[in-house]
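User: Hi! I have a protein structure encoded as tokens and I'd like to know what sequence might fold into it. I'm fairly new to this, so please keep things simple.
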């Protein structure tokens, strides 16, 4: 077993903002402070996802044919969009809007990268936004 797998992973609850350690293999956990279930794995969207909220402690990837329509999107591990995302985004990490992406809505993130060719409509962008305080949770490769 590698050292990285043996070490716990620090996450922050997206509901109450409590921080705690989890196993690196965990996909869902309950927050020890608010006792609500949390999604900690990465989310990959390949088709239409029309939801009120899409929240994860992991990374959100919207693939080229993927569409997310939501009131709120929060992904503490970062967001990569090459498809369509229409939502208010709150993210403590990096947001990447790739050249094939269609983005509509607000964005609060610690950093943002927009490739030439991407479509960005309306919305207010606040960058850098460190209000979530999750920058130290992000692992650097």
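Assistant: Happy to help. Inverse folding works backwards from shape to sequence: for each of the 141 positions I chose a residue that suits the local structure. Here it is:
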């Amino acid at each position: 077993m590698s050292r990285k797998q043996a070490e716990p992973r620090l996450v922050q609850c997206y509901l109450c903002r409590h921080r705690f350690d989890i196993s690196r293999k965990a996909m869902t956990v309950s927050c020890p402070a608010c006792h609500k279930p949390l999604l900690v794995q990465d989310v990959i969207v390949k088709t239409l996802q029309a939801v009120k909220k899409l929240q994860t402690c992991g990374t959100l990837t919207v693939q080229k044919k993927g569409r997310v329509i939501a009131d709120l999107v929060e992904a503490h591990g970062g967001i990569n969009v090459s498809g369509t995302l229409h939502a208010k985004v709150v993210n403590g990490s990096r947001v990447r809007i790739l050249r094939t992406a269609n983005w509509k809505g607000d964005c609060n993130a610690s950093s943002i990268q927009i490739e030439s060719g991407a479509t960005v409509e309306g919305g207010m962008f606040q960058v850098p936004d460190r209000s979530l305080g999750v920058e130290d949770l992000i692992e650097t490769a």
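A useful reference point when you look it over: The chain has a mean pLDDT of 89. Feel free to ask if any position seems puzzling.
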